[in-house]
């Protein structure tokens, strides 16, 4: 009951922190999409490049989040952004790379070779094949990677409170430092609900942008 009362009494603050949290995650994932999708498409042309890029992205994601956020402080301090919003966004961008690159690469590689050969036979260029055939067919898998990145990073962004970036992690960090279970539980519940809501919303978006034919094939 104490936790519920705390949530009711601080609902405006919770809303503000949730918006800060979403701002970090969605700006970072938007930047990650703009970089990771082209990388994922590019490495389909070389198995060696794919192995190197995927291995590097896998190594990056194994770095503990608190360590990566901490590393941003000395790297960005010379330009006046050692703490706060900017390092948080950069860290989340880095963590978002692997699921988006991997799903993009896998989706493009798994396109039916017969369709690719037919497109070549029709005289389509590489860019035309990507735009007209490969990307539309790969879109559901790419979106699945984006959903994974968003849900994962909603949890990771909670650590950004420790470098002054705000967000729902503020309740968790204060709950720990002040030995206040109300704030700790409030932060944990809010982050979990935010992740669930974001996943459901992106699942709807994925369904809307997937062509009816592909959707029927997946659901069959």
Structural write-up:
The protein has about 220 residues and is an all-alpha fold. It is about 80% helix and about 0% strand.
Q: What low-confidence regions span 5 or more consecutive residues with pLDDT below 50?
A: none
- End-to-end separation in angstroms reads 46 Å
- Strand fraction equals under 5%
Computed Rg: 20 Å
How would a textbook summarize the main sheet?
none
Order of helices and strands: HHHHHHHHHH
Mean pLDDT: 87
The number of strands is 0
Structural class: mainly alpha
What global shape is seen? elongated
Helix tally equals 10
Helix content: over 70%
Summarize the topology.
Elements: H1 2-9, H2 11-42, H3 47-61, H4 65-76, H5 85-109, H6 113-121, H7 126-156, H8 169-177, H9 181-209, H10 212-219
Helix pairs in contact: 1-9, 2-5, 2-7, 3-5, 4-5, 5-7, 6-7, 7-9, 8-9
Q: Outline of this structure?
A:
With 220 residues, the protein is mostly helical. The chain has 10 helices and no strands. The radius of gyration is 20 Å and the shape is elongated.
Relevant terms:
220 residues, 81% helix, elongated
